[in-house]
Amino acid sequence: MTARTPDAAALLAAVKFDENGLVPAIAQQYDSGEVLMVAWMTAEAIEETLKTGRVCYWSRSRQSLWRKGETSNQVQHLKEALIDCDGDTLLLKVDQDGVACHTGRRSCFYRRADADGLTEVAAVEIDPKSLYGA
Fold first, then answer.
1. 8-101 in CATH: which number?
2. HSE of 41, CA atoms in CB hemisphere, 13 A
3. Dihedral of the CA atoms 100, 34, 119, 75 (nearest 10)?
4. Considering the entire predicted model, what is its pTM?
5. What is the mean pLDDT of the segment spanning 119-134?
6. Phi and psi based region of residue 28 (left: phi greater than 0; alpha: psi -120 to 50; beta: remaining)
């Protein structure tokens, strides 16, 4: 994170959450610009992320906080939090430990649409079973 902890109240006041209390968050590797993933955050997830410096999301499938790396050890360390002009999307610049995708790839964006359909453009780096168990 930056030298000073971001002001959670100011950020939360600027965020336009959807009807479910969620805002999309794009995770980007801070030094390379690589887009790693997109997930959802609640006010509580934002507050925890800013307080701890470890990125926390909201799992829509589990309906609970999802502390990135809690199970897989593939932690995202927050470097900078930005909000877009409309207040309805966050950009989290992070330092990613290992892979970001549950498929074992560095990025969730590993398929390119082309004339032949979808082509995988990134290989699996870590067996997902070793990250999450069978």
1. 3.10.20.810
2. 30
3. 0
4. 0.91
5. 86
6. beta
